[in-house]
Amino acid sequence: MSDAPLSIAEANIQMMAPGQMFETERTSINGVAMTIWKHAPANLRQILDLSLSHADRDFLVYEGQRFTFDEHYRTASTLAERLRDAGVKKGDRVAIASRNLPQWIIAFWGTIITGAVAVPINAWWTPEELQYGLNDSGSSVLFVDEERLERVRSQFADLEDLMTVIVISEDPTRPAKLGASHDRIRIIDFNEFLGTVDPGATPPDVVIEPEDDATMFYTSGTTGHPKGAVGTHRNAVTNLMNLFFVGQRMTLRFGVGNLDDKGESLPSAGLLSVPLFHATGCLASMITATAAGGKLVMMHHFDAGQALALIESERLTTFGGVPTIAMQILDHPDFKKFDTSSVKSVSYGGAPAPPELVKRIRAAFPGGQAGNGYGLTETSAAVCLNGGPDYADRPESCGPPVPVAEIAIVPEDFDGDEPSSDLPSGPDVVGELWVKGPNVVRGYWNKPEATAKSFSKGWLHTGDIARIDDEGFVYIVDRAKDMIIRGGENVYSVIVEAAIFEHADVADCAVVGLPHATLGEEVAAVIVLRPGRVIEAEGIMRHVATHLARFEVPTRIFFRSDPLPRNPQGKVLKRDLRNSLVEQMERSN
């Protein structure tokens, strides 16, 4: 008998057999035929109820604060009733703009179980960007920390839908600093709004269907303002099932995972080092921990030394999020001084990962496994996942797609609305990656033209250029969308270019992403100045910083006297430009 591990196909057949937990079936969602997990929970309320099976375990840990699963469940249920008392109804939008805090997670679940839509807002946005997100979503209630309160306060006069701002204190020993009151918008401390937590509180009696809206994550657009990607309860639950399936498949095939010395499953304990306002932080990390009884440990800001101390003291089993987090921890000069033997998994996505990173992880954590993945806000996180020995064998791949996701490679100039059987196929075919499945969001909030451009007959046009090998492993080759991924944050070139063009000395510009050792990519701007004008790079950076968030500000500025390279249609040849800059950087090194 062979000792070779099961193939992915063999494991899929075994795990997805009729009557098994991961059985699938075909159904129609909004008129589109899809494959779904037959035994998936119907909504996120059921996921929160599952968390009570881990009632006495620690769930949330932050700077000395601890919440068990029971405490979190009762607090979120009480908060839901307070929101209903404040007039929040099913389908209303409730925004959260805060750094990672336990109250962020409580606010999310309190919103969800009222049947309202949680709108995680990028906490690093400028006041103007925050104003746009709140107005675009039509949020009537906003949860903020004290720093975000001061940013949004200057925009109160232009926030017509906003009625209540609930402020989280960053110091649990004192009430939040509310500042001056407002004549129309109620500003109230989180704990005052919450009041006394009922130790027997349960979620409100609200009917929540799988296709009801649950979340609205904002994703920057290639043109104009960010777009709110509207995710349903089915979308979020599907992502959870996808992650559970892939984790259990790896255990079945290789006998690895979050296991003790006897091979028994251990509760996970993870370092939440990516923002909750991203799909990875919220849908992949937080919701998964809620369902599985995993502990989430948060920090005020990421510090590799503090992260190592937490790995040791909290016996963390997993960390990652984006490749730069893993690299900073591995590179810390005191790495070997800490006990990191509890680590079983280092997983990341959201940015290009150097292939040698998997080797470094395996060497640093003998009992752990590295993992990589691919997904977008529009796919509710994961589409492809690659982990363990598969990742070691194919470090350039993001893995095969999850079973309920259909994928296709289409020519970049393809103008059809769904892939056809006569399209070129094979491991050497490169084209745009399209994705279809119950994890794909229903579209963009109040943006019918943008929705029509990116979605057709259930298919999401990702804008990423990919190929698929003979065994179904996906390789992301390039991006068709004009986007840079800096340390896990999406930076859309057109938005940065628009800010640069507002400078009176700039005649032309192009923004591209350049390779960076820890961030994956950094933002670079190539600028042609108006005749006779002179400005330093720092002046351009300061100018952009007044308009955009810190992560969008270029860290490299290149001035040139020649016109930018363009095609006959006048479009800047950014791939050529980027390649020439990389060559220039390599020569200078």
Notes on the structure:
The protein has a five-stranded parallel sheet with strand order 6-5-7-8-9, with helices on both faces. The protein is globular. The mean pLDDT is 92. The chain contains 17 helices and 28 strands. The termini are far apart. Helix content is 30%, strand content 26%. Among the domains are: 68-208, Rossmann fold, CATH 3.40.50.980; 483-588, ANL, C-terminal domain (GMP Synthetase, Chain A, domain 3, 2-Layer Sandwich), CATH 3.30.300. With 589 residues, it is α/β, with parallel strands linked by helices.
How would the blueprint of this fold be written?
Layout: H1 8-15, E1 24-29, E2 32-37, H2 44-50, E3 58-62, E4 65-68, H3 69-85, E5 93-97, H4 102-112, E6 117-120, H5 127-137, E7 141-145, H6 146-153, E8 164-168, E9 186-189, H7 190-194, E10 213-219, E11 227-232, H8 233-254, E12 269-272, H9 279-292, E13 295-298, H10 304-313, E14 318-321, H11 323-331, E15 345-348, H12 356-364, E16 369-376, E17 381-387, H13 388-393, E18 406-410, E19 431-436, E20 443-444, H14 448-454, E21 455-456, E22 459-468, E23 474-479, E24 483-486, E25 489-492, H15 493-501, E26 506-516, E27 520-529, H16 537-545, E28 556-559, H17 574-588
Parallel strand pairs: 3-13, 5-6, 5-7, 7-8, 8-9, 12-13, 14-15, 15-16, 27-28
Antiparallel strand pairs: 1-2, 3-4, 10-11, 11-20, 16-17, 18-19, 19-22, 21-22, 22-23, 24-25, 26-27
Helix pairs in contact: 1-8, 2-9, 3-4, 8-9, 11-12
